[in-house]
Amino acid sequence: MEKTIMNLRxxxxxxxxxxxxxxxxxxxxxxxxxxxxxxxxxxEDADALHCxxxxxxxxxxxxxxxxxxxxxxxIIRIAKKCGVNAIHPGYGFLSENPTFAKAVQxxxxxxxxxxxxxxxxxxxxxxxxxxxxxxxxPLAEGxxxxxxxxIKAAQKIGYPLMVKAAAGGGGKGMRIVHxxxxxxxxxxxxxxxxxxxxxxxxxxxxKFLTEPRHIEVQLLAxxxxxxxxxxERECSLQRRHQKIIEESPAPGISDKMRTNxxxxxxxLASHIQYESAGTVEFLVDGDDYYFLEMNTRIQVEHPVTExxxxxxxxxxxxxxxxxxxxxxxxxxxxxxxxxxEARVYAEDPANNFLPAPGSIYxxxxxxxxxxxxxxxxxxxxxxSSKFDPMIxxxxxxxxxxxxxxxxxxxxxxxxxxxxxxxxxxxxxxLLSHDLFISGSMHTNLVDxxxxxxxxxxxxxxxxxxxxxxxxxxxxPATNQKNTGTWQQIGHWRLMPGINVLIDGNAFNQNYTYHxxxxxxxxxxxxDIVFRLTGSSGNQMKIEANGTRHVLHFxxxxxxxxxxxxxxxxxxxxxxxxxxxxxxxxxxNPVLEGETFVRAPMSxxxxxxxxxxxDNVNKxxxxxxxxxxxxxxxxxxxxxxxxxxxxxxxxxxxxxNSPLIHLSxxxx
Length: 667
Hints:
Layout: H1 2-6, E1 13-16, H2 20-33, E2 36-41, H3 49-53, E3 56-59, H4 72-81, E4 86-88, H5 98-106, E5 110-111, H6 116-123, H7 125-134, E6 142-144, H8 147-157, E7 161-169, E8 172-177, H9 183-198, E9 203-207, E10 213-221, E11 227-239, E12 242-248, H10 255-271, E13 276-285, E14 288-295, H11 302-309, H12 313-322, E15 338-345, E16 347-348, E17 354-355, E18 358-360, E19 362-364, E20 371-375, E21 381-383, E22 390-398, H13 401-413, E23 416-418, H14 424-432, H15 434-437, H16 445-452, H17 461-474, H18 485-494, E24 497-502, E25 505-510, E26 512-515, E27 518-521, E28 528-536, E29 539-544, E30 547-556, E31 559-564, E32 567-573, H19 579-585, E33 594-598, E34 603-608, E35 615-616, E36 621-627, E37 630-635, E38 640-645, E39 652-653, E40 658-663
Parallel strand pairs: 1-2, 1-4, 2-3, 4-5
Antiparallel strand pairs: 6-9, 7-8, 7-9, 10-11, 10-13, 11-12, 12-15, 13-14, 15-22, 16-17, 18-21, 19-23, 20-22, 24-25, 24-32, 26-27, 27-28, 28-29, 29-30, 30-31, 31-32, 33-40, 34-36, 34-39, 35-38, 36-37, 38-40
């Protein structure tokens, strides 16, 4: 013990080489430990929450990621300049870059993470598979090599299969292929993505298991050879290979399987002499399990483990980095209750979950015992198209899974985010579905749920009516007292109409004005009487024929942002729209004459698939647009001829900007 104390490396000032919610989360632990924190930021992050919370802040010069958050030399230079003695990489960016870990150590600083060698061997998925094979750890059938080698190997492995980036992680650089004809295209796209995100174009293929569970084991390992497991997390609820809901412990897992996974994870970590926090991921198929990968960093979903074990994983990382031995053994760590985490993203469920960057005008988190929210936003903020679209993680811990499930749903309904579209309503539906309630987990569960219930639901007529009337209650014009008899009689007799755009779609509704707090919409069988029963701050309560609704709202430049039951909507009068906006909204999707294909979101053009003079059919891919670390195919909506292409690969484009000019007539 005396030797351990003698070897301790003191840490009193830490630079966080990251941004967003993980930077905020690390700073909170540093504050509790009395350690000074240093934030780095770009122009987009100048007013970000992690900058406001840190003891110091330093600007990263440059615009592209390679010049800022991925610029090892600049980060080390800032660290030396401000006198830190340690760097925490968070997750993403440089967190699993062995060159960065070595550069930190070569600069005489403490890297709060594992060794360069551990990051390197586990960061390359092909090499990690080879090590697991030598240790007789089960693996799903796969192959490595050049694209032509993989195409031949795929014939033996069979379809469906997964194409993966060797240096990938975080759900990036992964694609499913169902037939041989699509494999070459997918190999090319995965290589392109791997090179752009990870700086390594190496890829490999792996047999795709149709309904496995994705279970991961959290480890802590010190510099003295001690390794403990903080049990497992269930991460099977995924969309586009991105985890969206996680929980701990995994529901319905047997004690035998839990023990096997924990011991296998510790065996792998011990073999590579791992230290710090790390996670070993597995696919579980019935009574069988297969090694998937090891993440040599803190995971996004680590809060559920912290909630059920009572340990602060960031704090443990820091203690391990100083040389301190783990103060507990495996038998000292217990599972206490159940925790569920839901990731809140800025994306539009009604538009195929496209990223929805923009300004958040109002951000109000719910509160309560057992609730934890790790967020990147204060009372307001901006979601940039250059970064991941995650806004926050909502976590709830309770004695039972069912209680945690019910309470997190309620908190999600009370979570107010106004200004951008979010997936909150989608999360609520997933958490409320019978398949989730039963705990019948597998990685295709989201697809199975989507088959039984459409996501998202189309807005029912009564919800549109509620939003339209709520808009009238918010509009200052409706709050003026009509003292004239003719005005009151006129409203009753003339039955005015509400002409608004709800989420950009025209909505017209006749209504009867009674008072400033009561309006009536005629119905076939029964009129609907809407009464404003209360309004305080950004919240209003409306009663509609006995049913009570709570809506949150904010008016910005004539447009009202609403949130109701976790669903975000915008309402604006037609009169507020310019001719360009109206033209874009009313544009006929069936091509007649000429039209412009416009950007559905801000982003970067990755690849242009057409040129002037080309003939395209409905569904053909015109270009690939990257936004928030996602590639999005922009397709033709009708048969047409390409008249002009106004963008090039590498161009940054803004939302609704013209990209390609199409014509119904050949050039």
